[in-house]
Automatic annotation (TrEMBL):
Gene3D superfamilies: Cytochrome c/b562 (1.20.120.10). SUPFAM superfamilies: Cytochromes. This is Cytochrome C. The keyword Signal applies. One of its GO terms (molecular function) is iron ion binding. GO terms for biological process: electron transport chain. The lineage of its organism: Bacteria, Pseudomonadati, Pseudomonadota, Betaproteobacteria, Burkholderiales.
């Protein structure tokens, strides 16, 4: 084989060898930038919490009672995503689920108080609900975003 044929072939092999890692990195970056279904769940919960805040300020107990179960029994991500999250959580999965259970309990209490028209108890339960959300966010949000989205 002549040197003229080997040189272009070697150049092509080197270019391909350089492009494969670049393409892989781009694919990984695109994957990490995709929003997970949990993100959409959290955004909806945020909107529901804002509506509840407004309803409390207007003493619209019916609306609070209507939204409370939606907050407590919010949708879960698809099973494949849930497994990724639980795998990442590892031994902290119980703590994460505990926060979710506390949110559910507080929202149930809030809904029951709203159904009775007990504004004082609604506000107490809503405060507990917000505290549980905040505790979970402070514990898991930043590490979650760093792991799944590469955000620092």
């Amino acid at each position: 084989m002549s040197n003229q044929k080997i040189l272009p072939t070697a150049a092509i092999v080197m270019i391909v060898a350089l492009l494969i890692p670049i393409a892989t990195l781009q694919a990984q970056a695109a994957e990490s930038e995709k929003r997970m279904a949990l993100h959409d769940v959290m955004q909806q919960l945020g909107r529901d919490m804002q509506v509840v805040t407004g309803a409390i300020s207007e003493e619209d107990w019916g609306l609070v009672a209507q939204l409370a179960p939606k907050i407590g029994r919010h949708p879960e991500p698809p099973i494949a995503e849930k497994m990724r999250i639980l795998t990442w959580l590892g031994t902290d999965a119980g703590k994460f689920r505990g926060f979710d259970g506390q949110v559910q309990d507080a929202s149930t209490t809030m809904g029951e108080a709203a159904a009775r028209g007990d504004g004082q108890e609604v506000i107490v339960a809503f405060g507990k609900l917000q505290q549980r959300c905040l505790s979970c966010h402070q514990e898991f949000r930043k590490p979650f975003q760093e792991h799944f989205y590469g955000k620092r």
